[in-house]
Amino acid sequence: MTTFRAFRIRNDEAGYRAGFEEMASDALTPGEVLVRVAYSSVNYKDALAGTGKGKILRQYPLNGGIDVAGHVVASTAPGFREGDAVLCTGSGLSETRDGGYAEYARLDARWTIPLPAGLTLRESMILGTAGFTAALALLHMLDNGQTPALGPIAVTGASGGVGQLAIDIFSRAGYAVHAISGKAGHFDFLESLGAAECIDRHALAFSGKPMDSVRFGGALDNVGGAMLAGLLPLVAPHGNVAICGNAGGIAFDGTVMPFIIRGVNLLGVASAGTARPVRERIWQHLAGDWKPRHLERIATREATLDELPDVFGRMLDGNSFGRTVVRVGGG
Fold it and tell me: Locate the Enoyl reductase (ER) domain: which residues (predicted)?
């Protein structure tokens, strides 16, 4: 039996709390693949879960961290051997099963992905759920007929982790990207990632009309709310708007006109429940033709487990930028 350190989240008669504990490997949630964790990452969901400011976990206690990458220590599943490099994102981590903020994680073999050639473990966690979500949006859009000829792709929330990775991924795939952000001080950086144009969210005026002049071929929207309602009338015929976030609210006030007049498609991007064949397809793209060219620049911080509470606070206060990689064991 192996004992190790974990960032564990509890909610019981003593209240909601999170902190470091020593635990045994046989206390981890069940799974066929035991992994010594090398890296994890910090997503907004992780900050909400780690502080109790969002209802993320569906059972307690659990180790935090919705992303994990490391090496197999033991496996009862065919196809995984000791020493194999693997990764897992979403798939119930830090929701219904122990996540990646621990020196060991026990993974469900159904959602454990062999690290594809072309990626290091660290790079896979710079991408993590954020990069997987951006790539999943692109895949859905491509499968639904999106082409560069339709026009530029608007990426909202462009200064965030998903937004930055989306700029890099979509531009590498041949799309002109128009980055929409309320942080004008970051525009030079976003352009260096591949944005063809940067648009200040505060200066972006929507007409409020059910239909307006075409401005974008499609969009990846991290915001929702009024932003989503304003974008839809600006999208080209048969363009796609992939929605993956709700920073601006869960409701939007719009009309059916863009859908029934221009054939605009609204595509939901639910990364956590993505089927394994699609996961494998996405990770092959991310290791190959869609691999971002600026991963190390997007990874603006590498933190240790001990630094997690500070990282959570900065993220929830709106003071984080880029992606934070969590170095657990390294390698």
Answer: 15-326
